[in-house]
Structure formats: C-alpha cells, structure tokens
Amino acid sequence: MKRVSCIVLTMLFLVTIASCQHPWDQSALAPKSPQYVWGKAYHILPCTTADESGYFSLCEGLNGKLYIGTAQYNFNAYLVEFDPRTEQQRIVIDTRRLTGSRAAGYAAQAKIHTRNFVGPSGKIYVGSKQGYRSIPGDSSEYPGGYVMTYDPKTDKAACLGMPYPKQGVIDVVADEKRGLVYVVTCEEQHWMLAQQQTGTYRELGPLLTPYATTLLDALGRASVITKDFQLAQYDPATDKVRIRDLTLDGQKWVPKEGPPVPTWNLDADGRTAYLINMSDPALYAIDIGSESESVPARNLGNRTEGKGPDSRNSLAIAPDGRVYTLVRVANDTSLGGGFVHQLTRYTPKTGEHKILGVLAVKNPDYYDFGPLWNGKPRPLSDGFPRLSDGTMAPYHVHMSLIITRNGTMYATFLNPFTLLRIPAIP
C-alpha cells in the first residue's frame, strides 16, 4: 500500500512540474526584442563608391551640413556633402580632378579614409590614400596620397600637396591659428608637419600606431600615440617633440590587443582625451595636459559586456560632455544571431555607463534590397538583414560615429554604404 501511494505521489509531482514548466519554457524560448534606437537611413551617392564602401570620413561642417568620404577602388575617391535639411547630396571634392591624378588600379587615389577635420575657418581637411591590389596583373605603384581642403563658404576645393611619397594619408589636422597642418601617413604611420604658407612637409619623428590621429590641446600642442603606445607631443613654441609612457593604474600601459587601433577625442576642457581601442570594451581617459614624467590614464569601466566587441572610429563627445560610442557585439537577443550594434553613453559627472539600445532602421525601404531580375541576391546588399521580429538592423562593422552641435548623431555602415541619422537622446 505504501509503495502504491509513493508511485501515485510521484506521478502527481511529475504532472505538476510538467504543467508549471510548459508556460515557463515557452516564455524563455520566445524571441525577446531588445531596446531599439531608431535611425533614418540614407544611401550614400552610389556613383561615388565601389563595393558600397567608405571609411572613417565623416564630420559636421560649421554650416550644419555633413561631409562623407567615399572609396571608389581602382579609380577615385570623393567627398560628399549631405544637407540634413533637404536630405540632398552632392560631390564637393573629386580627388582625381582636384589633384590631376590619372592613375588607375592600385596607383589610384582610391579612398578618403581620414576622419575629416573642421578648422575654425570652416574649411574641411581630408586626405587620400591607396586601395587594394584587386586587378589581375596590376603592377602599378601608388605614388602617395594628397592633403585636400573644401571651403563651404566659397564652394571651392584645394590641394595641399603630397606629404610623403608612396604613403597614403590617414589623418589631417590643421592648427589654423599657427598656420600648421599635421598629417599621419599609412601604411608606415609617419607623423608629418607642414607650414600652410610654404606647403613643405617635414617629419616630426616617431612612427605611430595604426590609424593614429592628432589631437590639439588647449595649449596648442599636438598629441599622438606612437607604435609603442606612448604619448608623443609636439610643442610649436619650442619646435620639439616629447615622448612619454602612458600609465594605467600606476603601471606602463600595455594594451591587450596589438597593435591596438585606438579612437580618441578631446573633451571641452582641452586636456582630457577619451579613448577606446577597437577590440576592447573599456573606455579610458588620458590626461594629455599632464606635465609629469609619465602620462596618467584611467580605466573608466566597460561600455558593454557583449561578446566580441568591435568599435571603429565610434567615439563622440556631446556638447554636454557625455561620451557616446558604438560597439558591435554578438547578437544574444534570440532574434537571429550574427551581430548587433549597441549605442552606449558614459556620463562623466556620475561615472555611469548605459547601453541606450541596439541601432535599427526605421525606413527599411530607403534602398532596394530585393533580388535582381534573375532572382539572384543584389550584390553588396547584405549589411542590413532583418532580425526575427522583422526589425532591420545594421550587421557589418560600423565605420564612424559623430554627434552634432544639436545632439543629433550620425553613423556610417557598409553594404550598402549608408548614413544613419539618430535623433538626440535625452
């Protein structure tokens, strides 16, 4: 009798567990939508790209318009103007025409990859660089990249010469007050300086980390990160370069990834540089105004806990001092796998990190993603798949992020080459 009672009780227990488990399992397996940050997408002028490609080149001019560099491999590169008010685009720099270059293939001026610098005059400073060897039998040699400017006030472009033969240009920054132009080349990352009046370039000294950029501090000094991850500063008042170690938690800073690919921007205080590395989820602050023997940096914490973080030229400081970044991470939302792009924000006053959400496209019909007439997939259109809840979201790596004076954010993505406008977030 006792044995029968035990069996009955066991069966009742299992039935109870099963009846409780069913709805729990269903909710656990149901797709869970993330918090979305919606943006309006615009296809960058297709006549200015090859392979729907562009890079770090994105800025807001003093006139409120956007300027985007493109890559047309084996032939040319362009600077495109986007007017947020009219949503119209036009070409303002045709590199081939401006420089007089007629080279094609690997020798072509195939990319504008610089982050773009806006001087107090309103001029936009950019540079050209090489593409890739993609044509069979192409043995041409790249002659070197050019520094170029576009002045929205006069609607005229100018060429400021070639800083270093056989090297492309990855960064241009102008100290217009002192008449100086700082250039970083690639692929060897030479740090160059020119007087705007003479246009003659000279090398400042240390080789730099890949994709290095120059920051101008409140004292007019130019700062870069070297190939050994040290801080190099050039002071035009003394015409000397000072190189010092960066320290993190009292120890020499040795990044986990090597060589690191940093993105940094200067705070309004003129001395605090916020920095991210491409494959590192942390946000750092560097006191480039320090006069000590080594330059102190602080780890401000991780922006995300997502897997496989990837951030490319995606750090922007808002007018209120808050720091925004993009991080591509593995999609763990149960909405299709792959990757998603998180928009993050750091508030210096409170030290708080916040993931604002996953970027999504509110106007998915901005581009024809449908198949070709023969039923085959449209080439170079795989960068904006649908998540399983139907939401269109960027997939491939982002290429840039900026925040404008009114708080609107813009980011660029590949396949197709797309500009995403994100409204200001309170």
Structure characterization notes:
The structure is a single chain. This protein is mainly beta and 426 residues long. The N and C termini lie far apart (69 Å). The protein contains two helices and 30 strands. Helix content is 8%, strand content 38%. Among the domains are: 34-54 and 312-426, no CATH class; 57-210, YVTN repeat-like/Quinoprotein amine dehydrogenase (Methylamine Dehydrogenase, Chain H), CATH 2.130.10.
The low-confidence parts are: 1-31
The number of distinct β-strands equals 30
Taken from the alpha-carbon principal axes, the silhouette is globular
Q: Please identify, by name, the CATH architecture of the domain at 57-210.
A: 7 Propeller
Name the CATH superfamily assignment of the domain at 57-210: YVTN repeat-like/Quinoprotein amine dehydrogenase
**What is the alpha-carbon Rg in Å?**
25 Å
Tell me the number of helical segments per DSSP (H or I, 4 or more residues long): 2
Instruction: Determine the structural class based on helices, strands and strand pairing.
Output: mainly beta
Classify the oligomer: single chain
